[in-house]
Amino acid sequence: MSIICQSVIVAAPGAVRLESAELPPLAADEVLIRTTKTLISPGTERALLLNLPGLAVQYPKATGYSHVGEIVEVGGAVAGLTVGDRVASRSRHASHIIAKADNCHKLDANINDEEAAFFQLLAISLQAVRKTRLEIGEAAAVIGAGLVGLLALQVCRAAGALPVITVDSDRSRLKRAEGLGADVTVPADQTDNFAQSSGAQLQGAPVVIEATGNPAALETACQIAAFGGRLALLGSSRGATESFDFYKQVHKRGLTLIGAHVSTTYRLAAAPGWWTQREEQRAALRLIQNKRVAVQPMITHRFSFQDIDAAYALLASWNPNAIGIILNWT
């Protein structure tokens, strides 16, 4: 049976389209998935859409990596998955997907498809917090209250951080952070006197998560870190950080900078503080399923896959009220 798949393609900077193609035959270790929901990754996909610095992209380019759907066919060597199972996978925005069975996570009945679509973005945030070796009772500051930052603040809370502080330039995003459990919110223009503006009389936060990807935010992150603090660079920087004094900001203050791109997670075997990508994904799904991390309040927009022009126009505009953008494929 031939399947015609429709995929979201960034044809050129600023231009998206739906592209149809016939899927190849299923291999023995693969499954065919009919898509129900996908989640737009606001940082990566906006950078791809607008060809921002830090990427080397050849257009046209398929996009997306947060996918949920129902298995409609399984390969002959697949065990543990069957037709009708709902699964999450790190697959692109498309009506149908062929995926390796080993890369799919079978979903429990008490997690819905929209919630499950957040699993990969939560796993990305989770691995960054884990790498800081956050201890119970330590203060943690998250710079940026976009989707990844809001997920990171909830992971910090789940890990026992106290207080959890969110820094952002947009007041509406700070309000959303409060609703998701931030103990303290600090406007980005009030970080010069962090001890006073944080309300916790801190000389700095032992753990800082930089979740904006804005090159200029590195200086703010170092500024609010405590002496000897650990700083995870979670947001993918789009451009160079200029005129940054590493001697003053990092060396003299004993800071540890941690590159926390998800590609640095281990593929096959875990180590203390460094889980594999699959383990991080499973942990993310458990956190959502057991209501330790709330993702429904972060869904701000829903679009049919047929309305991708509107969805990606919203993404390009960088509307501060656009956090979780779901594509519906049913």
Please bin the fraction of helical residues: 25-40%
Q: Report the major sheet.
A: 7 strands, mixed
Oligomer: single chain
Structural class of the secondary elements? alpha/beta
| Series of H and E elements | EEEHEEEEEHHEHEHEHEHEHEHEHE
Count helical runs.
Answer: 10
Q: Give the termini distance in whole angstroms.
A: 20 Å
Beta-sheet strand percentage?
25-35%
User: How many beta-strand runs?
Assistant: 16
> Uncertain runs with pLDDT below 50, 5 residues or more?
none
Average pLDDT number: 92
| Shape summary | globular
| CA-atom Rg in angstroms | 20 Å
Provide a concise account of the structure shown.
With 330 residues, the protein is α/β, with parallel strands linked by helices. The protein is 27% helix and 28% strand.
Task: Based on the model shown, name its key terms.
16 strands; 10 helices; alpha/beta; 330 residues; globular; 7-stranded mixed beta sheet; 6-stranded parallel beta sheet
